[in-house]
Specification:
Shape: globular
CATH superfamily of the largest domain: MutM-like, N-terminal
Structural class: alpha+beta
Strand content: 15-25%
Pfam family, one: Fapy_DNA_glyco
Organism: Agromyces ramosus
Number of helices: 7
Subunit structure: Monomer.
Cofactor: Zn(2+)
GO molecular function: 8-oxo-7,8-dihydroguanine DNA N-glycosylase activity; class I DNA-(apurinic or apyrimidinic site) endonuclease activity; damaged DNA binding; double-stranded DNA binding; zinc ion binding
Oligomer: single chain
CATH topology of the largest domain: N-terminal domain of MutM-like DNA repair proteins
Number of domains: 2
Distance between the termini: 41 Å
Length: 310
DNA sequence: ATACACGCCTGCTGGC
DNA sequence: TGCCAGCAGGCGTGTA
């Protein structure tokens, strides 16, 4: 279940291998991996073949590789997607390989990127680049400059910045919290408001600040809102740091959260296990067709105070 | 604008 | 042993 830290690990691993590389050939093994590609703009294979990749950029859980001036290969890993960097002679027997990009890099020679995705919620696409709404650098790419810095794939433009993005607008986020009657977890998962947070890190951040996920966002004080945002940053940042330690810079092999960060989770997946803070058995509750994990003692629902003034 | 149900998809696990 | 329900769940879409 790749969330921001996992996707960033993938991006960082791909960047040196793809930047400056030319796509020599493409194999589309399963067309379902192109569900987000708009065929009206041309077919994926012809748009990609021969293109030079200029960078690897990420916003939230989306990553993209600009090709030419105004297009990019956009990727989303969905639930189970992987972008595996391989040598050209690597066996091609992956059961769930969906798309293969054969690259030719001026320094690294021939490389292959295999998009492997068991559950097929992920996808690749070619999309046009449009200017960002705020005119700032679109996403994280470790110092990419040039014409691509202020552009974003059209299908990603509605995705909010992630909380680790220097251009993330804290005040706008806190204002949105104050306006939303929904449970605070639901708000954290709204990628149009803040991106990169999924079910795992939402549970972790809520545990860290002792909040119940169903607590109405609008019932939080400004101070609590700030604490929550800080906790989200902390959780994402720590996971990113851990991912960075076990990551081979040349050949990416990301298997999702279970592989990297599971040992440091305080809430997610810990139903029945003691709360690391108070020892009370954690509980799992159904939420939006998935699961929420919390400590029933530390993370209680608090009735909103009656507003002092309307 | 906001809220929320739904469909997409495969593999694994647990109960009977 | 085999079968099926349940679970993993992000995101776009459709409806109110």
């Amino acid at each position: 279940m790749p969330e921001l830290p996992e996707v960033e690990v993938v991006r960082a691993g791909l960047a040196p291998a793809v930047t400056g590389a030319r796509v020599a050939a493409v194999d589309v093994l399963d067309a379902r991996a192109l569900t987000r590609h708009d065929a009206a703009s041309g077919d994926f294979e012809s748009l990609v073949t021969g293109a030079r990749i200029e960078a690897a950029v990420r916003r939230g859980k989306f990553l993209w590789m600009p090709i030419g001036v105004d297009r990019a290969i956009v990727g989303h890993l969905g639930m189970s997607g992987q972008l595996l960097l391989r040598t050209p002679d690597h066996p091609g027997d992956d059961r769930h390989a969906r798309i293969r990009l054969h690259l030719d890099h001026p320094e690294h020679g021939e490389l292959r990127i295999d998009f492997v995705d068991q559950r097929t919620f992920g996808s690749l696409a070619v999309d046009r680049l449009v200017p960002t709404a705020d005119g700032e650098v679109a996403g994280f790419s470790a110092g990419v400059t040039g014409p691509w810095a202020g552009t974003i794939p059209a299908q990603v433009s509605h995705i909010a910045r992630d909380p680790l993005d220097p251009a993330f607008d804290d005040r706008a986020f806190l204002d949105a919290l104050a306006r939303r009657a929904s449970g605070v977890k639901r708000v954290l998962l709204d990628q149009g408001l803040v991106s990169g947070v999924g079910n795992i890190y939402a549970d972790e951040a809520l545990w860290a600040v002792r909040l119940h996920g169903e607590q109405p966002a609008s019932s939080l004080t400004r101070r609590r809102g700030r604490e929550l945002l800080a906790a989200v940053r902390d959780v994402l940042g720590k996971a990113l740091a851990e991912g960075g330690t076990s990551f081979d810079a040349q050949y990416v092999n990301v298997n999702g959260a279970s592989g990297y960060f599971a040992q440091s989770l305080n809430a997610y997946g810990r139903a029945g296990l003691p709360c690391p803070r108070c020892g009370t058995p954690m509980v799992r509750e159904s939420f939006m067709n998935r699961s929420s994990h919390r400590c029933p003692r530390c993370q209680r629902l608090r009735m909103p105070r009656q507003p002092a003034s309307a």
